[in-house]
Design a protein that fits this description.
Helix content is about 40%, strand content about 15%. The protein has about 300 residues and is an alpha/beta fold.
């Protein structure tokens, strides 16, 4: 595999292979010196046209833990401001000699285009509302570690699914691993069509709460939502927020996940984020291991272990 652009390109075996590789990388991260020189001499550039905290730092940490050199490009402080196109920007960076490009862009399909333009491997780190494959892998890895297996888990993805690339990648990844996904939220924030998607849909969180093994909470992406589609945030929280009261009604061993950035009190209560059910910190920590496994898989040479 040369690029990682979409979970659609990964079958179940490929996903399991990457999760097993992440397990190895997670062991590396637990060592006294959490590094292996597997990608020494390789150069990885992150090309970010949209804001990011976790994803960018996580990829950069992953690259460094594997001994690669890293470069960072953020559109806001670049010649994009002077009008340089995506094509010229990408070609310019490629001329410096790179092995992999990690791309985030507000346009769906931008990483696919970049992959056609350059010889280096391309990883989609979030393209518009389309996909965010490494987020899906790190979520699956995190749940597999906690439960031992993802198969059979009932996962409720709550909130702004319509605008969520995390949900689009997650749905495919979860279902390939044998989990059952239900999308929960206001009808205005549900995808226009879910025909053919391996999901059920409901607007009633309270009704389904006690059946879920995982509540996967999404941020209400105000920057991507037209005003008319969103009830007031208070109203939203009252019906779809993961409050302390709702968390108490979950199964005793049910878990809570969130991809970040979280807006505490808008979609999830602070006590729930910091409580015993929460996998939020694990998701972030595991993100580094999963991205190490992906980078190694795409541009490393030889076997993983
Ligand atoms: C998300 C993203 O940017 O797609 N965050 C992430 O990468 N962990 C989700 C969001 O912005 O709400």
């Amino acid at each position: 595999m040369k690029h990682l652009l979409s979970v659609e390109d990964l079958d179940r075996d490929r996903i399991v292979e990457l999760l097993d590789g992440s397990e190895y990388m997670s062991d590396v991260l637990g060592r006294e010196i959490p590094k292996v020189p597997a990608l020494r001499g390789k150069t990885i550039v992150s090309l970010f046209y949209e804001d990011s905290t976790r994803t960018r730092l996580s990829f950069e940490t992953a690259a460094k833990r594997l001994g690669a050199d890293t470069m960072t490009f953020t559109a806001g402080s670049s010649s994009v401001k002077k009008g340089e196109s995506l094509l010229d920007t990408v070609k310019t960076i490629e001329s410096m000699g790179i092995d992999a490009m990690v791309v985030r862009h507000s346009a769906a399909g931008a990483p696919h285009r970049v992959a056609r333009w350059i010889d280096a491997s391309v990883i989609n780190a979030g393209d518009g509302r389309h996909e965010h494959p490494t987020q899906a892998l790190l979520d699956a890895f995190t749940l597999r570690r906690r439960r031992g297996d993802v198969t059979g888990a009932r996962i409720g993805i709550v909130g702004d699914v319509r605008n969520s690339r995390v949900a689009r990648s997650g749905i495919q990844c979860w279902s390939r691993l044998g989990a059952q996904v239900t999308l929960i939220g206001p009808p205005t924030l549900m995808p226009e069509r879910v025909d053919g998607w391996p999901v059920e849909v409901t607007s009633d969180l309270d009704d389904i709460l006690s059946e879920l093994d995982v509540v996967y909470v999404l941020r209400v992406q105000q920057e991507r939502i037209g005003r008319a589609l969103l009830p007031s945030l208070r109203e939203y929280y009252a019906r779809w927020g993961l409050s302390v009261d709702r968390a108490e009604r979950l199964k005793p061993d049910a878990l809570v996940m969130h991809p970040g950035p979280m807006i505490r009190g808008s979609e999830i209560a602070t006590e729930v984020v910091d409580g015993p059910r929460s996998l939020v910190r694990d998701q972030v920590a595991n993100g580094v291991a999963v991205r190490m496994a992906v980078l190694w898989d795409l541009i490393g040479s030889g076997g993983m272990a």
